[in-house]
Request: fold
Amino acid sequence: MEQDNLVVETTKENHSIKEEKKEKKKFDKNEFFRLLKFVGFSISAGVIQIASFEILYHAINWYWWPSYLISIILSVIWNFTFNRKFTFQSANNIYIAMGWVLLYYAVFIPISVFGGNALEEIGWHGTLVTVLMMLLNFVTEFLWQRYFVFRKSINSKPLAKTVQMKLQETPFEKIESGQKTVEMRLYDEKRRMLNVGDKIVFSKQGEEDKKIKVKITKINTFKSFKELYKFYTDKKVLGYAEKEKASFKDMEKYYPKEKQKSDGVVALEFKVIKKDCKL
Reply:
């Protein structure tokens, strides 16, 4: 019996070790791709910085330091915007995050401007000095953003996605006319994946080539359609005509009470982006 228990414990321990290795491998992979995205956006920001610097420094013949200062500001705005959204996918307050980034540059810019200007004055080529400053900027900025600015908010803002849903003729046409602005569904696994900002492509049943693309502006969840109908006093937004009798029981034809109780229900408020859209 003791030997059997030892085998069980050993198996559990091995399983735990395997899971830890799997998580570590997944983490390493995510970090690798995050670094690649940061490199990609940094390269694009570098192109902007070099191009603007060359125009100001060589074409217009400005002094090195104002040319460098303006070019790095343009680069910072570009780099921060895209890395926040795509590299770190952060929902962190944009003003707070930008404030921390500005603090970094409040230290880095004076050091790089005075240091770079000193190198240029002793004979170093201005473009070479700029490239060296960019490399130093790349390494230190990544470390600052990854381990300080976005450390606790990485992947807190998923990228917007597009999903497809089918609609019968009447609700489809009411969305098309602009009357219906709320779609009601069970709050099942598929709907729980949706976020504000995601897009839905509604296709008309029987005529699947007819599609409307909308953007989710608000998500309200309820325990039942009865509760949902009480919340929306203006039933026109749900797809009812002005004199048409609205009842939550209409939805129970499609979604029984048992499913409502287990999943809950959701109201997806949206605005139309494009009619007759093509995928």
Residues 143 and 149 are 9 Å apart (CA to CA). Confidence is low (pLDDT under 50) at residues 4-12. Residues 2-149 form one domain. The radius of gyration is 28 Å.
